[in-house]
Design brief:
The protein is an alpha/beta fold. The chain is built from 15 helices and eleven strands. A six-stranded mixed β-sheet has the order 2-1-3-10-4-11, sandwiched between helices. It has a five-stranded mixed β-sheet with strand order 7-6-8-5-9, sandwiched between helices. Strand 6, helix 6 and strand 7 form a beta-alpha-beta unit. The longest helix is centred in the C-terminal third of the chain and has 20 residues. The chain starts with a helix and ends with a helix.
Length: 334
């Protein structure tokens, strides 16, 4: 069966999206922030690659993306590794098919005057978006730097609510992504810590592309085409960063400087790299792959915080990680 699936997928990639195997539309969920995939929204390249209409569905947080998947309202989503892990542990029928970007300075801790480093968080009020990569990074930073968590008032707030709380004086710091991080900085804040600093401590925190399993099984050529376009847009950003930032800024309604800061605040492994053991693996040992190990670590964290139940964490991640689309996309890429 696997061999037959592979032959069908390979044939569809060579011939393009075949008639009769194309959905009426593809529903793609995105956060509304400055991501490289917004370049495809701007120029309609995904519509062309799919041979059908793309319906872009905006969400506020990863938790919303999970709800959309649960209600069968979306097909593909670009959102954080932490909520994706939560969805997988809760047995949501989705799978990770790619990494859209590794979080470096895109998400960061912004503090008010008097907060110079992480140790200054003790005795302060800190906002964070619940069930997000920012929450994961904040908790990891507290753990790695041996802070007394009981002395920090942690407040779960949606990004927009965090900005409002900051302006009211209800919080002293906030861990959040762009463009909200820039809004906090513009309101007198400064960067205290960035997610990239956790990499040396073994934390891989990233945004991923997740797909409904039923959709991927029915339209494998769409998923592979999506990943190819993602790589094309990464290449466009690298070749013409200023032009790409201007395009994305216009698409999401953000200042060009904000878009440029956000786009450069992510690291982009190529689809060829992602199909190796360091990332999604080759399909033969998901648990040992870089993403498999990251899932295990993230799931343990979520269990510690009560976000998921420890007994629900799967023993293996084979059903959660699917590198076949990356392999096909990389093979078909020019």
């Amino acid at each position: 069966m696997k061999k037959q699936w592979g032959l069908i997928l390979a044939a569809s990639l060579i011939s393009g999206v075949s008639h009769g195997a194309t959905p009426d539309e593809v529903r793609i969920a995105y956060s509304g922030g400055s991501q490289v995939i917004m370049l495809a929204k701007a120029d309609g390249s995904l519509d062309k690659a799919f041979g059908t209409k793309v319906n872009w569905v905006q969400f506020a947080s990863g938790a919303d993306a999970l709800n959309y998947f649960a209600s069968n309202a979306i097909d593909i989503a670009n959102f954080g590794s932490s909520p994706a892990t939560a969805g997988l542990v809760r047995k949501l029928p989705i799978e990770i098919v790619g990494v859209s970007g590794v979080i470096a300075s895109y998400e960061r801790l912004i503090g008010k005057e008097g907060i110079k480093d992480l140790r200054d968080l003790e005795g302060k009020r800190v906002g964070y978006p619940p069930n997000s990569t920012s929450q994961y990074a904040l908790d990891a930073a507290i753990k790695v730097h041996h802070l007394d968590r009981s002395k920090i008032t942690l407040l779960p707030l949606r990004p927009a609510e965090m900005v409002a709380a900051w302006q009211r004086g209800d919080i002293d710091a906030g861990y959040v992504w762009a463009p909200f991080a820039q809004q906090l900085e513009a309101a007198g804040g400064h960067q205290v810590f960035a997610t990239k600093e956790l990499q040396k401590d073994g934390y891989l925190i990233y945004n991923n592309y997740a797909v409904r399993k039923a959709f991927a099984e029915q339209y494998p050529q769409i998923v592979s085409a999506f990943l190819r376009v993602h790589q094309q847009k990464v290449d466009e950003f690298r070749q013409h960063p200023e032009q790409a930032a201007a395009t994305v800024a216009k698409e999401v309604g953000a200042p060009v400087t904000t878009a440029a800061n956000t786009l450069s605040g992510l690291e982009y492994p190529s689809i060829q790299e992602q199909a190796t053991a360091a990332w999604l693996g080759k399909g033969n040992d998901a648990d040992a792959s870089g993403i498999g190990q990251a899932l295990s670590k993230t799931a343990s964290f979520l269990a510690e915080t009560g976000e998921v139940r420890k007994r629900d964490i799967p023993a293996h991640w084979d059903a959660a990680i699917n590198p076949r689309f990356l392999q096909q996309a990389a093979h078909a890429a020019p």
